[in-house]
Amino acid sequence: MRTNLRAVIIAGAMLLSACGGGSGVIAVIDSWAPATPPNAETAAIYLEVDNGTPADDRLVDVEIDRCEAIELHNTTIDENRIMRMRPAEPAALEIPAGGELVMKPAGLHVMCIGLDAPFRPGEILQLSLLLESGAILEIETPVENR
Question: What domains appear along the chain, each with residue ranges and CATH number?
Fold first, then answer.
């Protein structure tokens, strides 16, 4: 009898795990911005956002007081091996239920336009991420060269 009860408990735990018993929150699990040259007018910011909820969401905007404007971009390489940066399609900014949105160099990124000053290593940037659901994630992002 004890062996059967143990098997039922293990099976139940596996079922909960498989059904996405996630954290129940959307959270930034990594963020960073590379340092910029002294005269740079733009900068990139990279994020990894985990969706531990059962509902899809989407990143719609980012606010930071260090920039005149923010654009969400995607970098692609065309058939001639030329790298191009374009505004990200809304579908590219989806944060699927139980999944994540990953922004990284040569891919999706936050483009900070009209910097008030260069990003320096060791500096901490204050960002607000606005989600389609209405949630706002307030985060601190380090400036570091990876």
Answer: 23-142 (2.60.40.1890)
